[in-house]
């Protein structure tokens, strides 16, 4: 009977954890005793416990880099190389897909324009049906690179780890690509160039067919975490601005007009004569109580008499 039949993994794991806990306790006690006996300052303690400011800064940098890679990985995996979020160009998607799935079966797709490392001779296994790079294929690939011009940052500074999510989706969508990858000779040494060349040709097809290359490999994915934080701050700022009460102070002209109107109201209410000036014009406000109403009536009677006299002379003629 094998000794595996008498082996209890749970009991062994429990004893191992118990031993580990005791070792940690002893280590802490020993460190405490050493610290109490020796004149150790805080800086030395930080270094001995790997918690110095330099190490902490290095750990923070590593965390930031991992956060960046995760953001870029999610961004790249959001679209297959032939897809687009531009509704006006969706008609080009099927044509791009067919072209990319055709070129994923050709050896030239993976061998140029970016060459293998100097210490690597072959891209594919000796029994592979895919062809290795030739002088002619390298020259043709360089012309394609010149045609593309400057590459987007995420494609030019190619990071294989950042493309892992996208590659997993491609294996499910393109069987020919998966078959080509399976024929690599030394995957660890050649796969970065394999994928960089492949995605370059995907970018070239997008460029030739009329789809945006930057939509896949632009730097937006690298700034995703920062942009989300910026959007949250913008929303909070907008809410604060909505709660601000707006007040308007009248300018000098409006104040002068308001003063004149108030002055006119005072004149009307009091019934006294006054002179108000506005924009260089003089206005005289006359009270009806000033002057003699009887004199005005007599003047009107005399005018009526003269008019009647004139009419009578005209009739006599």
TrEMBL record:
PROSITE patterns given in the database record: BSD
- Composition-biased stretches (Basic and acidic residues): 224-241
* Compositionally skewed regions (Acidic residues) per UniProt: 242-268, 287-298
Q: Where is this region: Disordered?
A: 224-298
Q: Which domain of life is it from?
A: Eukaryota
List where Polar residues composition bias occurs: 269-281
Recorded hits in InterPro entries, A to Z, give:
BSD_dom, BSD_dom_sf
| Residues annotated as domain BSD | 154-206
Q: What is this protein called?
A: BSD domain-containing protein
- The organism is Chaetoceros tenuissimus
Q: What is the lineage of its organism?
A: Eukaryota, Sar, Stramenopiles, Ochrophyta, Bacillariophyta
